[in-house]
Amino acid sequence: MRHGYTTGACATAVTKAALLALITNEEQETSTIHLPIGRDATFTIEKCTFACNAVSCETIKDAGDDPDATHKALIIGTVSWADTPGIHLDGGIGVGRVTKPGLPVAVGEAAINPVPRKMIHNTVQSVLDEFHIDRGVNVIISVPAGEEIAKKTLNGRLGIIGGISILGTRGTVVPFSSSAYMASIVQAISVAKAAGCEHVVVTTGGRSEKYAMAQYPELPEEAFIEMGDFVGFTLKHCKRLGIKQVSLVGMMGKFSKVAQGVMMVHSKSAAIDFNFLAQLAVDVGADEDTVSAVREANTASQVGEIMADKGYQAFFDHLCAACCYSSIHHTRGGLTLATSIYSMQGQLLGRADDIASIDEINWDRG
User: Fold this and answer.
1) Gap between the Cα atoms of 262 and 78, Å rounded
2) Which residues contact 271 (CB under 8 A, 6 or more apart)?
3) Phi, psi for 40 (deg, rounded to 5)
4) What is the sign of the dihedral through the CA atoms of 215, 220, 223 and 225?
5) Domains in the chain and their CATH numbers?
6) Degrees (nearest 5) of the Cα angle 230, 189, 195?
7) Whether this model's pTM surpasses 0.70
8) 30: part of which helix (H) or strand (E)?
9) Most-buried pick from 41, 96, 151, 245 (CB within 10 A)?
10) At 339, which helix (H) or strand (E)?
11) If you ran DSSP here, which 8-state letter would residue 313 be given?
12) DSSP notation for 108-167
């Protein structure tokens, strides 16, 4: 299936084109940028407009074969010289603004995630260095249809108002194919088994896999399997193929769902149950104010911040144990489970090891 590009990559490309046009006074027809995955990509600039000491460049997002809500969206970058030093990035029409805590962007700021922010800043600085320019730059990213597109996303529920988020950690969009992804998981487990692995580590993505490899340096590469959102499917196939020990490594958001018994953890599959997380907080002796804050949180990451700030380390271990219990219930036993939860920055928040059974589970209850 054909890969596409993220809104973050598109925003970076139009920003670079607009800055080059501002410097050279020449219209740009294409824009080549360096992606986080380590390769270059060239974007077509659909329009280049000079007006009021600023330049705006436009591109149309191509999401490839991924069923992405932002496919074919018009992304605009407007660049002008700033009166103060530095690179000043903001969102314009159609880019949402953060109104609730718990997201990777501060309240009040445009919903441009950390990796796209870094891409835009680095690209702007590279162009300025190339032309030996020492001036401040204003950058505004706009998506004219963004507010309408956002209705198809979870932005409203997350408190991102007025448009879409500018996202992407790779720069590219990998097409989502459930059957193909599940087939690759089964193949990976089979390869691990054939390589003699009795212990495999399953992760939700590349970042958590990096943390997992650091946690389990003694295991061979074949033992690490990216399961994506397919937690239950992966665990059942580990059992079916005779894997004895499985370690789950991931982050608060998806593993909060696993702990509450959700085994397909795509963002649209089920909501975080904050009452469940609040009960876990009660279990570890959290005070009433903390429990109330957990119940009223906006995201699982925010819950993690609340509990970490209050010093309730036991909460994270308890959450990890709950992941193990839910997983064992789902597979009806047959595996020894461990769970580790990391922060986005790679800090180990909690861990539970060597859980193989739950006495109170009735395996006949369906």
Assistant:
1) 43
2) none
3) -90, 155
4) positive
5) 4-173 (3.30.2110.10), 178-355 (no CATH)
6) 160
7) no
8) strand 30-34
9) 96
10) strand 336-342
11) H
12) TSBSB-HHHHHHHHHHHHHHHHHTT---EEEEEEE-TTHHHHGGGSSHHHHTEESEE-B-
User: What is 168-209 written as a DSSP string?
Assistant: -SSSEE----HHHHHHHHHHHHHHHHHTT-SEEEEESSHHHH
Query: How far is it, in rounded angstroms, from Cα 226 to Cα 7?
Result: 24
Place of tokens 């489970």: 337
CB-based contacts of 292-296 (< 8 A; 24+ apart in sequence)? none
**What's the burial of 26, exposed, middle or buried (CB within 10 Å: 0-12/13-18/19+)?**
exposed
For residues 283 and 32, give the distance between their C-alpha atoms in angstroms, rounded to a whole number: 53
- Cα 345 from Cα 207, distance rounded (Å): 9
User: Which pLDDT does position 359 carry in this prediction?
Assistant: 58
Phi, psi of 327, deg, nearest 5? -65, -40
- In the predicted model, residues of the chain with pLDDT beneath 70 are 1, 66-67, 175-180, 267-269, 358-366
Residue type, 50: F
Closest CA to 284 of 261, 306, 307: 307
User: Which token pair is 233?
Assistant: 């499917």
Answer yes or no: are the C-beta atoms of 122 and 87 closer than 8 Å: no
Q: What Å distances lie between residue 205 and 49, 76, 189, 293, 315, CA to CA?
A: 40, 30, 16, 29, 23
Residue 91: name the closest of 53, 143, 14, 168 by CA.
Answer: 143
Instruction: Judge whether 87 and 135 are in contact, CB under 8 Å.
Output: no
From first CA to last CA, the distance across the chain in angstroms is 37
Write down the pLDDT at residue 336.
96
CB neighbours of 226 closer than 8 A, spacing ≥ 6? 185, 188, 202, 203, 204, 205, 206, 209
Joined together, the tokens standing for residue 60 give: 């149309």
Q: Which residues contact 173 (CB under 8 A, 6 or more apart)?
A: 3, 4, 5, 6, 63, 64, 66, 68
Identity of the amino acid at 123: T
Q: Which residues pair with 245 in a beta bridge?
A: 199, 336
Q: Residues 6 or more apart from 300 whose CB is under 8 A from it?
A: 252, 253, 256, 272, 277
> Regarding beta strands 136-142 and 87-91, do their DSSP bridges make them parallel or antiparallel, or are they unpaired?
parallel
Phi first, then psi: what are they for 77, rounded to 5°? -120, 125
